[in-house]
Automatic annotation (TrEMBL):
Keyword Lipoprotein part of the UniProt annotation: no
Species of the source: Eudromia elegans
Cofactor(s) listed: FAD; Zn(2+)
Keyword terms, alphabetized: Cytoplasm, FAD, Flavoprotein, Metal-binding, Oxidoreductase, Phosphoprotein, Zinc
SUPFAM superfamilies cross-referenced by the UniProt entry: Flavoproteins (SSF52218)
Gene Ontology CC: one annotated term: cytosol
Enzyme Commission number(s): 1.10.5.1
Protein name: Ribosyldihydronicotinamide dehydrogenase [quinone]
Matches recorded under Pfam families: Flavodoxin_2 (PF02525)
Residues of the Flavodoxin-like fold domain: 4-212
Keyword flag Metal-binding: yes
Top-level division of the source organism's lineage: Eukaryota
Cellular compartments annotated: Cytoplasm
Family that this chain belongs to: Belongs to the NAD(P)H dehydrogenase (quinone) family.
Length: 230
């Protein structure tokens, strides 16, 4: 699909990691299809995960009492957000598809990626009440969470010790992406790659490459609570 733009937001410290391989496969396969692929390699960029006063360039909207949400919204309107934030927003704005590639940390995404969400998806740019969920400001985009786990698939079932994996996806897919209007594709989960054989790891990588070949034909998942909690 020539002309499609993909942004991969990637959070892993080691380029030779399994996550690194998944990211490389996505770049390779999607580029082969004629897509234009950009990678935000958060650790390599030393991306700042903390939402602070430093994100606002120049004067504050209310210098007496600092409210990050208010200040970020007003700074976005004025074009006064720090350059690292505006650069990421520009990449998001241009992308048709966002792929988040990361290892699952404590039932969630790594802090550096959560910080990306906190700082980049500001009000006025990604959402603006009542324009959220199906009418969120990023409603013409798709997102896919591709991640690895420490535990095997059995652990993440409804009867397993960690519960249904969909419970963990609720805040990421529904609370962040769907809130901003983004349509969510089914997650791509590689269960416990460090605890399987080299052969099984190769199969996992192959399965990802195969899925990417027909990715643009996929329908988004149902982002209602029923999908996550049924």
């Amino acid at each position: 699909l020539p002309g499609k733009k993909v942004l991969i937001i990637y959070a892993h410290q080691e380029p030779k990691s399994f996550n690194g391989s998944l990211k490389n496969i996505a770049v390779e396969e999607l580029s082969k299809q004629g897509c234009s692929v950009t990678v935000s390699d958060l650790y390599a960029m030393q991306f700042e995960p903390r939402a602070t006063r430093n994100d606002i360039v120049g004067c504050l909207h209310n210098s007496k009492e600092f409210s990050y949400g208010v200040e970020a919204r007003e700074a976005y309107k004025r074009g006064d957000l720090s350059s690292d934030v505006t650069e990421e927003q520009k990449k998001v704005q241009e992308a048709d598809l966002l792929i988040f590639q990361f290892p699952l940390y404590w039932f969630s995404m790594p802090a550096i990626m959560k910080g990306w969400m906190d700082r980049v998806l500001v009000e006025g740019f990604a959402h603006q009440f009542p324009d959220c969920y199906n009418s969120g400001l990023l409603k013409n985009k798709f997102a896919l969470f591709s991640f690895t786990t420490g535990g095997n698939q059995e652990v993440y079932t409804k009867g397993g010790i960690s519960g249904d994996i969909r419970y963990l996806l609720w805040p990421m897919q529904h609370g962040i992406m769907h809130f901003c209007g983004v349509k969510v594709l089914a997650p791509h989960i590689c269960f416990a790659p460090e605890h399987v054989s080299e052969e099984e790891r190769k199969e996992m990588l192959l399965a990802w490459a195969q899925r990417l070949k027909t990715l643009w034909k996929e329908e988004p998942i149902d982002c209602s609570p029923e999908w996550y909690f049924k």
